[in-house]
Amino acid sequence: MLLTISTTHQPATDLGYLLYKHPERAQSFDVASGKVHVFYPEASEERCTAAMLLEVDPVRLVRGNEGAHGEGWTLRQYVNDRPYVASSFVSVALGVVFRSAMAGQCKERPELATKAIDLRVELSAVPCPGDGAMIARLFEPLGYQVEATRLPLDPAFPAWGGSPCFAVTLTATMPLSQMLGHLYVLLPVLDGEKHYWVGDAEVDKLLRYGQGWLEPHPERELIARRYLKFRGLTKDALKALREDDDAPADDARIDDATVSESTEPHVTLQSRRMDAVASAIVASGATRVLDLGCGEGQLMERLRDYAQFEKFVGVDVSYRELERAARRLRLEGWPDVQDQRVVLMQGSLLYRDRRLAEFDAAALVEVIEHLDPPRLATLEEMVFRHMRPRTLVVTTPNREYNSVWESLPAGGRRHDDHRFEWTREQFQGWGDGLAERFGYEVRYRGIGDEVEGVGAPTQMGVFTRGEEVGRG
Ligand code: SAH
């Protein structure tokens, strides 16, 4: 995978100072995935090009990753596109060899680091789903001119048609550090491949480099979704490594069933549900978030890295679940000491609690089906009349989908404690009634792979308070 960065900023060789790499020297670095070479194909006063060549070593990748996902040996582990395409390996390599440049530092020419200079980036192969339009949708809003040309599968056999990869040229005038941050985040988003061995620190970096431009980006939902999927997978992989990881999540039995059916085998339904809810909450523009029936805190864990949020409150009746949440969220000293930003409260959603009023957004994820009808009516009053969040995201199982699960006896429910499971019509009837009664707009969508005639395994309703509707 070859990436070049060129400038005609004068003198162009300043690029060497910005990248902390001398234009006259070729250098090589070891990274986890293989070797990175940095060199300058051209370096004159008028025009300077720095090249980063990443040589991914497929054998090393497999060795470093043995046992992480227990798949055993397959040829695909060795023969795949990883050595040739822009992926999170390129991000990791950028972070290693251009660390200071990414941080916006330049010892020799400090004023250069923040200066907008003309830049041209060429990437030899960028994988992108569909027609490649996503490349422009991601980069154009950030001020780039984008050229993307689909690469042939094999230039010697034009009849074979195109590959899933594009040759990409990006041009823009901006500080170099900013451009490196965009590449760092967006290349893995375009790629969408799973990298089980990327650690938590890498994930945090993705969020850090997104700061300042991700929130106002019109495609932030798409970016967050594809990024969070990536993160979910990381978590799953890490989880698999940890022997002492505690009890399965609420729907574990069902999620195991999905694993073998899904086209993305390692993304559990729970993970996709968290991604969908997290995206809806991020997109609502909320700053204060309530997680009602937060369980072990997975949603807050997904959201907490976003700078947009000032406060999270998770409420649950179960002390055991809260203890798990405190561990997951690393809330040292809980329950005696509370974090300022992330607060866990034991409480019931069936009693009025003034501390829960005045939140921007609330989540009610896989909770309503645990309440029998008279209690559900009480919960509706508490949430819609007293808490009155601007945005409320509710999820519940879609009963119609149960017929698809062979492991489920006919007419059976997904969990012993579920008091009901609704069809899409029932859920939407319930939601429409509440929206009408309390002055909300509601939109529905499915979560998980849809099956014709029965819909998706989980259904989600996003309620927006009336006076907010249409405010953009
Ligand atoms: N939202 C979490 C957990 C879902 S399981 C997730 O999706 O991972 C349902 C949770 O609702 C459980 O943790 C249960 O303890 C909690 N719960 C059930 N009834 C409740 C009530 N009346 N008040 C508060 N929490 C309740």
Automatic annotation (TrEMBL):
Top-level taxonomic group: Bacteria
InterPro entries, sorted: 3'-RNA_MeTfrase_Hen1_bac, Hen1, Hen1_N, Hen1_N_sf, Methyltransf_12, SAM-dependent_MTases_sf
Cofactor entry: Mg(2+)
Keywords: Magnesium, Metal-binding, Methyltransferase, RNA-binding, RNA-mediated gene silencing, S-adenosyl-L-methionine, Transferase
GO BP annotations, alphabetical order: regulatory ncRNA-mediated gene silencing; RNA methylation
Pfam families cross-referenced by the UniProt entry: Hen1_L (PF12623), Methyltransf_12 (PF08242)
Sample GO molecular function, one term: RNA binding
UniProt cross-references to CDD domains, sorted A to Z: AdoMet_MTases
Domain Methyltransferase type residue range list: 290-390
Reaction catalysed by this enzyme: small RNA 3'-end nucleotide + S-adenosyl-L-methionine = small RNA 3'-end 2'-O-methylnucleotide + S-adenosyl-L-homocysteine + H(+)
Limits of the Hen1 N-terminal domain: 1-241
Database matches in Gene3D superfamilies: Hen1, N-terminal domain, Vaccinia Virus protein VP39
E.C. designation(s): 2.1.1.386
Catalytic EC class: transferase
Family per record: Belongs to the methyltransferase superfamily. HEN1 family.
Protein name: Small RNA 2'-O-methyltransferase
Organism field: Lujinxingia vulgaris
